[in-house]
Design the sequence.
């Protein structure tokens, strides 16, 4: 924005006047300073991303090569890290662990999308006694550190027999338990004009029909953002499975990765790096396919992470 | 909406209310109660009054260490991360053609950063023979013992969080782009230079977003678990033993649920006091333009 002054020094002088020495100087300076900016951004960006580039390259290296040079390029590319890493030291392959992650993510994402949409609609479009207080709890929950509620939640799930199952990992989210998403959808809904909804009501649609046929299509980009963030955070979640899942056959990818560090790190580095790449792959793929939803979501609702 | 019962809204927020009561409000109250008890999961909780808290503050040297490390960690990461995020957002906000490309590149670490795979990667690149030491070796520097030396280990963990400045940056960038351009034009006609424009126009206008990022980043930094758990296991000499690790060990390894709850409440109290200070002080430095704020 401030650069707009640099880039348009003409604005400072009368239109049609020939370029003065001052103008030429300004133009040169702006070209130079934007060159420096690009340079800084590029170098800094490369430093930031090099660990990831190195990770991908190193996953195709032999164990001997990983700690031999800082280059990311594998001299003798091998798939053995992937093949042996996939097998794991357990009776199960990583396929099983990805399947487990899928079994947690699917109900969690769908449940989050539906429940948060209903609740945000309730907050944004209805007045009811106690709404202000209830909305204040959304903000309070947003700021409440999970660490405070974790132990009693564990005891609760123990008492209803949910330990070592996927239920504690997704059920709380499926009842709009992630205040951040409710908040984000409310922010989006407030920006959508109500005219069409009011017209639908006049035509005799009830509130649920209005929600499904009018609001949801308008809100779709925001709902997609919610799904994507929930997908990503669930992929990354480690503490939840660590507390609740005890049998290896139910391990999601994050726990399985921790297990393979514990069992093979001393010698088979490339297996761990290869499985790390696979663990990151779904998130990376989703991010690159749908990054505009991430940027919009995060800019509207603010975000954690 | 007109004509409808004034209770209709409850129908829609019902799932939230149920979840709030069952998974947040009840556990919140229960954990406060548990913090005054001795509870090992086998027998019923035994009321011990203030014993847990007395022990924490007078006899528990691990807690002292853990609390110090946690505060250091938060006060190192949050300012650095926010400063980075703001700096890069300001640079990106100059009308660079490749703004979307750079925004994406800087955002990727935030998307992946919390995952176990990245913590694993951190172990490799900061290992004794790892990537970072190989690179500084090229410049003739001695290898650094990143994880083995208690004075370096916390910095290495801190770097992991600072690396993920992208999400704060995207929020800053959105705020910078919404600043009314005509303000800059008016000021620069009056002879303001670029630093003046930033200091007296941009900065005041984005204080609400700085405030938001400050609170969220602080609350999250206090809860960091994955990084130190995977990378250093809290060591060496407990130099990266953040409070969430201590709580986890007490609760799920020693099954000392009452004591773990007390630590959790101390952590919660610290976060709450800092948040309240931030809210209270915000009246003095956060500028809300009366209009255009949703």
Sequence:
């Amino acid at each position: 924005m401030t650069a707009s002054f640099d880039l348009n020094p003409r604005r400072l002088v009368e239109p049609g006047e020939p370029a003065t020495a001052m103008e030429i100087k300004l133009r040169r300076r702006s070209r130079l300073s934007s060159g420096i900016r690009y340079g800084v951004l590029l170098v800094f960006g490369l430093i930031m991303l090099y660990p990831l580039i190195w990770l991908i390259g190193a996953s195709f290296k032999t164990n001997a090569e990983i700690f031999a040079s800082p280059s990311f390029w594998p001299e003798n590319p091998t798939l053995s890290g992937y093949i042996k890493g996939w097998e794991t030291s357990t009776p199960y392959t990583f396929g099983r662990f990805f399947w487990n992650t899928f079994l947690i993510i699917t109900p969690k994402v769908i449940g989050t999308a539906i429940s948060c949409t209903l609740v945000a609609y309730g907050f944004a479009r209805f007045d009811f006694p106690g709404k202000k207080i209830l909305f204040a709890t959304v903000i309070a929950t947003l700021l409440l550190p999970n660490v405070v509620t974790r132990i009693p939640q564990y005891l609760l799930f123990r008492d209803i027999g949910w330990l070592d199952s996927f239920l504690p990992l997704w059920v709380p989210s499926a009842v709009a338990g992630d205040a951040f998403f409710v908040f984000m959808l409310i922010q989006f809904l407030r920006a959508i004009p109500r005219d069409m909804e009011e017209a639908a009501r006049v035509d005799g649609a009830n509130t649920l029909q209005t929600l499904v046929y009018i609001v949801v299509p308008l809100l779709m980009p925001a709902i997609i953002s919610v799904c994507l963030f929930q997908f990503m955070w669930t992929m990354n979640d480690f503490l939840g499975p660590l507390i609740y899942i005890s049998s290896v056959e139910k391990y999601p990818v994050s726990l399985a990765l921790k297990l393979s560090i514990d069992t093979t790190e001393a010698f088979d580095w490339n297996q761990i790096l290869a499985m790390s790449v696979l663990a990151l792959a779904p998130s990376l793929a989703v991010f690159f396919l749908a990054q505009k939803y991430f940027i919009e979501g995060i800019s509207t609702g603010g975000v954690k992470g | 909406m007109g004509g409808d019962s004034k209770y209709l809204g409850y129908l829609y927020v019902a799932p939230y209310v149920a979840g709030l009561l069952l998974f947040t409000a009840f556990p919140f109250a229960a954990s406060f109660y548990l913090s005054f008890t001795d509870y090992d999961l086998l027998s019923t909780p035994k009321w011990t009054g203030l014993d847990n808290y007395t022990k924490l503050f007078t006899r528990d040297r691990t807690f002292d260490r853990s609390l110090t490390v946690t505060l250091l960690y938060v006060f190192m990461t949050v300012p650095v991360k926010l400063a980075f995020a703001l700096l890069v957002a300001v640079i990106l906000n100059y009308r660079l053609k490749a703004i979307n490309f750079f925004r994406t590149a800087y955002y990727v670490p935030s998307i992946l950063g919390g995952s176990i795979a990245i913590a694993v990667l951190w172990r490799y690149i900061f290992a004794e023979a790892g990537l970072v030491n190989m690179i500084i070796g090229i410049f003739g520097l001695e290898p650094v013992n990143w994880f083995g030396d208690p004075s370096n280990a916390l910095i290495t963990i801190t770097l992991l969080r600072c690396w993920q400045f992208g999400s704060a940056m995207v929020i800053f960038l959105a705020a910078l782009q919404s600043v009314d351009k005509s303000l800059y034009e008016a000021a620069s006609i009056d002879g303001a230079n670029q630093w003046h424009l930033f200091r007296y126009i941009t900065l005041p206008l984005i204080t609400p977003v700085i405030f938001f990022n400050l609170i969220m980043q602080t609350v999250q930094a206090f809860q960091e678990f994955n990084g130190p758990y995977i990378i250093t296991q809290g060591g060496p000499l407990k130099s990266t033993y953040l409070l969430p690790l201590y709580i986890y060990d007490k609760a799920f390894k020693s099954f000392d649920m009452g004591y773990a709850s007390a630590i959790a409440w101390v952590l919660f109290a610290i976060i709450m006091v800092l948040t309240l200070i931030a809210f209270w002080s915000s009246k003095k430095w956060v500028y809300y333009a009366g209009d255009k704020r949703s």
